């Protein structure tokens, strides 16, 4: 996974949106935001994924194929939904099996976007309460294993004044040392 600051230049969200020169983001910065990352080669990945799932208490999993072929008629609508700035009340755990894409997370307290370019073998954990979004890159496809602590669910709370007051958002800010 490559992490860098998003340039905010208008245009296709699927482009890299990297500054020139690039502004890389360190592992320490991601750790301070509670974003976790592992690289687990796809060949023979299951025992390692199972061990992490057991350690972190992930009880369920499924697969998602984000592509025109995999999603059919709802593809365009889902891509727009994924790229809206939102948070979840649960961790978002993704292990990339094939394809490539971008997760963008909001850095706190600067409110800058950090782009996480993911590829096969990347396992990322986006904490509850962090504002983020997702998009494919120009290849327009990614297949990922989604892991869940309980029953599979994916409920986005789009950024708003109400969402800013969500207890999971407030807890996240406390965990990263921002807010009361």
From TrEMBL:
PANTHER family: ACIREDUCTONE DIOXYGENASE (PTHR23418:SF0). It comes from Psilocybe cyanescens. Catalyzes 2 different reactions between oxygen and the acireductone 1,2-dihydroxy-3-keto-5-methylthiopentene (DHK-MTPene) depending upon the metal bound in the active site. Fe-containing acireductone dioxygenase (Fe-ARD) produces formate and 2-keto-4-methylthiobutyrate (KMTB), the alpha-ketoacid precursor of methionine in the methionine recycle pathway. Ni-containing acireductone dioxygenase (Ni-ARD) produces methylthiopropionate, carbon monoxide and formate, and does not lie on the methionine recycle pathway. The keyword Iron applies. GO terms for molecular function: acireductone dioxygenase (Ni2+-requiring) activity; acireductone dioxygenase [iron(II)-requiring] activity; iron ion binding; nickel cation binding. This is Acireductone dioxygenase. Pathway: Amino-acid biosynthesis; L-methionine biosynthesis via salvage pathway; L-methionine from S-methyl-5-thio-alpha-D-ribose 1-phosphate: step 5/6. One of its GO terms (cellular component) is cytoplasm. It comes from the Eukaryota. Belongs to the acireductone dioxygenase (ARD) family. Its EC number is 1.13.11.54, 1.13.11.53. It is found in: Cytoplasm; Nucleus. Fe(2+) binds at residues 86, 88, 92, 132. Keywords: Amino-acid biosynthesis, Cytoplasm, Dioxygenase, Iron, Metal-binding, Methionine biosynthesis, Nickel, Nucleus, Oxidoreductase. The gene is ADI1. Ni(2+) binds at residues 86, 88, 92, 132. It catalyses: 1,2-dihydroxy-5-(methylsulfanyl)pent-1-en-3-one + O2 = 4-methylsulfanyl-2-oxobutanoate + formate + 2 H(+); 1,2-dihydroxy-5-(methylsulfanyl)pent-1-en-3-one + O2 = 3-(methylsulfanyl)propanoate + CO + formate + 2 H(+). One of its GO terms (biological process) is L-methionine salvage from methylthioadenosine. It holds the Pfam family ARD. The keyword Nucleus applies. It is an enzyme of class 1 (oxidoreductase).
């Amino acid at each position: 996974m490559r992490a860098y600051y998003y340039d905010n230049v208008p245009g296709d969200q699927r482009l890299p949106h990297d500054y020139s020169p690039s502004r890389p983001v360190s592992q320490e910065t991601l750790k301070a935001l509670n974003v976790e990352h592992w690289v687990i080669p796809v060949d023979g990945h299951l025992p390692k994924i199972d061990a992490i799932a057991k350690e972190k208490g992930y009880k369920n999993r499924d697969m998602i194929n984000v592509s025109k072929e995999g999603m059919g008629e709802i593809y365009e609508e889902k891509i727009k939904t994924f790229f809206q700035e939102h948070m979840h009340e649960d961790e978002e755990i993704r292990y990339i099996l094939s394809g490539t894409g971008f997760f963008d997370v909001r850095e706190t307290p600067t409110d800058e976007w950090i782009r996480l370019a993911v590829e096969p073998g990347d396992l990322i954990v986006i904490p509850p309460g962090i504002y983020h979004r997702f998009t494919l890159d120009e290849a327009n496809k990614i297949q990922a294993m989604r892991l869940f602590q309980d029953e599979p669910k994916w409920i986005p709370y789009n950024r708003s004044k109400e969402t800013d007051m969500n207890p999971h958002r407030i807890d996240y800010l406390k965990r990263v040392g921002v807010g009361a």
